[in-house]
Design brief:
The structure is a homodimer of 406-residue chains. Chain A is built from 11 helices and 18 strands. Chain A has 406 residues and is of the alpha/beta class. Chain A has a domain of 175 residues: Carbamate kinase, CATH 3.40.1160. An 8-stranded mixed β-sheet of chain A has the order 3-6-2-1-9-11-12-10, sandwiched between helices. In chain A, α2 runs antiparallel to α3. The longest helix of chain A is centred in the first third of the chain and has 24 residues. Chains A and B meet through α1, α2, α3 and β3 of A and α1, α2, α3 and β3 of B.
Chain lengths: 406, 406
């Protein structure tokens, strides 16, 4: 027990002065209780969105903002929140210091906008701990070997927190957010959704990929370094959810939760010639334009032609549609776009050696007259693309079928 | 001629997106014309004020914000403007890079809030020039030997610009602002105030101390390193004012200008015992609370008692008044405060060997029935504290008396 505890507070938790002052007290109390809090903060409220908007407004000819400059720009959001939190804690007569990602020793590769942490030199942090200080660290950012500031991309502050917890061998990484933990499914849709006391890394990873609160990257990192992650509500007295290794998990529970994602659209390329490399020719121009695609379905060739479908997020639909239609290297009949889909996924490590879950899932949806548009599975997950209007009924039905409220 | 030109743009010059884009074009054009622009920027518009406000709101028990944290906080304002300007210039297909104070090699002492530049390591800047890049530098900030960010205090960005011009041996340091140059006096008060083509460092220093647009510190630095400073309107086609050595100045002109400062109040301590160290006992608690005092007048002792008066800025009046009244180490009759004063000063290097200016000034004011409350003089300046209501008449009268419109 080295008593180091890493805490991360998200943007809504420090969205205004009063909330920030509450966090200051909470952190201060943790120190009083004998711990060494290392606190990672995101930018306040919507400030990152505001900076992104400005970076786009200042360019000529609608060019994309230079990524190196944009990274330094965005990094200021976390500098503001970390210094303000330090100022607030200091006024409670506590020893405290804020560190930028660079000062905290976080070095990354030089992929601006989505850098990966390559190393954490903890010497400065350990020095500050030795001086008995609470340490506030600007999340989401690091520095490359040239001394240029980089940002870690989506979910960056979660990643900062988990990486620090790993590097400092902290007992736990606490992620405070606007939900009270990880639920069996979205409580806004299923009224008796149950908060999980524990979930293992694998299940959480699938839940995260599929729209739960944390970024998959941070879960992956936690899993590799075996960092217990505790997710809880910032201003709640309720117990949160502990994300940890699977060994102690209840063996009988096979389905852990139902993940959902509403923001889904679909593109189908009809009657495209099935040659070696066709899939790559379709997808390369999309990834070149930073469009992530998700579920891919390709039917069996007929007369040497196939239909090729994939799902993608709603925001990317128009851009992807345009790129595909302007792709002269492809020989196809037409591109069809579809909106207002949702993904519903059954997740559970326990499913991997137990057959019949897919059947039971399809059956439950069929009984409610819900048609399935696409299906994809992994060892521990079954995902169906369905009509968005059917989502609430589907999730409630599945939650009941697999007795997740028990 | 190394073609390096340092330009500084103030906060109002880049107060919104459109203005910032105009600056981007202006800088880009300068590069096209064969120069290497090194551009120093202040924070946009009122953003520094906003950060200061937030730093005060997050403290408990109205404590002052920690200065080390506040410096990092405030430094983000210039990071935002410098990266946005770089993004804008980049979108014009120019090579460009923004550098923080630290990246630009600016090291300072560790007096947070009002640090002094100790050294500029220009290697990174010279490397970027070699790569043919326009360089945008975040003004107002540096880094101390511990790697902590410092800020230079009031007028900091002007100081950054002049220091860089000196370190890079630039031909000129151009300061762009919302006025078109240095005038014989405030054109809003004296309609025929004349813009000066040239002014020497000494005169400009006095004018600056007394409320003109530039900070005295930057002028002092320019004078020491002999950096010609050109002050002009950001979006104006008019010629500005060149601040330079006095050698080429017109010898016949003895009064250069009239400086004014409206933001003046006064405190008088009545009947205080005149012991060795009395003045220090009065002033030390004030400077400990960051209150700057200005003109000091102490009358001749009578029965071992004196009246001790000084002027100070309006904002500090109440705080200073309170501190003095609570100072138990002082033995005095009462503290009297006075508001709504103004300072009017005759400035000119030429005055130093020519007598009679003071008499002529007092005479001019007397003819207009203006009473003088306090007087202070230097070799090249005569300052009178007068009633604020009398200011316009005083300045106009002096401008005419000393034929500054000629």
């Amino acid at each position: 027990m080295n008593k180091i505890v890493v805490q991360k507070y998200g943007g809504t938790s420090i969205g205004d002065v009063e909330k920030l002052k509450s966090i200051a007290k909470k952190v201060s109390d943790k120190k009083e209780a004998g711990f060494f809090p290392i606190v990672v903060v995101s930018a306040m409220g919507k400030s990152t969105d505001e900076l992104v908007r400005m970076s786009e407004e200042v360019t000529f000819n609608k060019k994309s903002p230079d990524l190196r400059e944009k990274d330094t720009l965005l990094s200021t959001g976390e500098l503001v929140s970390s210094t303000l939190l330090a100022i607030s804690i200091k006024s409670l007569d506590k020893k405290v210091i804020s560190l930028s990602g660079s000062q905290a020793g976080i070095t990354t590769d030089d992929i601006h906008g989505s850098a990966r942490i390559s190393d954490i030199n903890t010497s400065r942090i350990l020095q500050e701990i030795k001086e008995d200080k609470i340490i506030i660290i600007a999340g989401f950012q690091g520095v490359n070997i040239d001394g240029d500031i980089t940002t870690l991309g989506r979910g960056g502050s979660d990643t900062t927190a988990v990486a620090l917890a790993a590097a400092l061998n902290a007992d736990v990484c606490e992620i405070y957010t606007d939900v009270e933990g990880i639920y069996t499914t979205d409580p806004r849709i299923v009224s008796n959704a149950k908060k999980l006391d524990k979930i293992n890394y694998e299940d959480m990873l699938e839940m995260a990929v599929l729209g739960a609160k944390m970024h998959p990257r941070s879960i992956e990192l936690a899993s590799i370094y075996d960092v217990p992650v505790y997710v809880a509500g910032t201003f709640s007295k309720e117990t949160g959810t502990l994300i940890t290794k699977g060994v102690n998990m209840e063996k009988t529970k096979t389905v852990t939760g139902i993940a959902i994602d509403k923001n889904v659209s679909k593109i189908t390329i009809k009657k495209i010639k099935n040659l070696p490399g066709t899939a790559a020719s379709i997808l390369k121009p999309l990834s070149d334009n930073s469009i992530s695609i998700d579920v891919i379905v390709q039917n069996t060739p007929s007369d040497g032609f196939i239909d090729f479908s994939f799902s993608l997020s709603q925001e990317d639909l128009e851009k992807a549609y345009e790129i595909l239609n302007n792709n002269n290297t492809l020989d196809f009949e037409e591109v069809v776009k579809g909106e207002d889909f949702a993904k519903v996924s059954l997740v559970g490590t326990g499913m991997q050696n137990a057959p019949g879950y897919a059947t039971e899932m399809f059956n439950a949806l069929g009984e409610k007259n819900i048609s399935i548009d696409m299906i994809t599975t992994s060892e521990i997950r079954i995902t169906c693309l369905i009509n968005q209007n059917d989502l609430d009924i589907a999730v409630n039905s599945l939650h009941e079928t697999f007795e997740l409220d028990k």
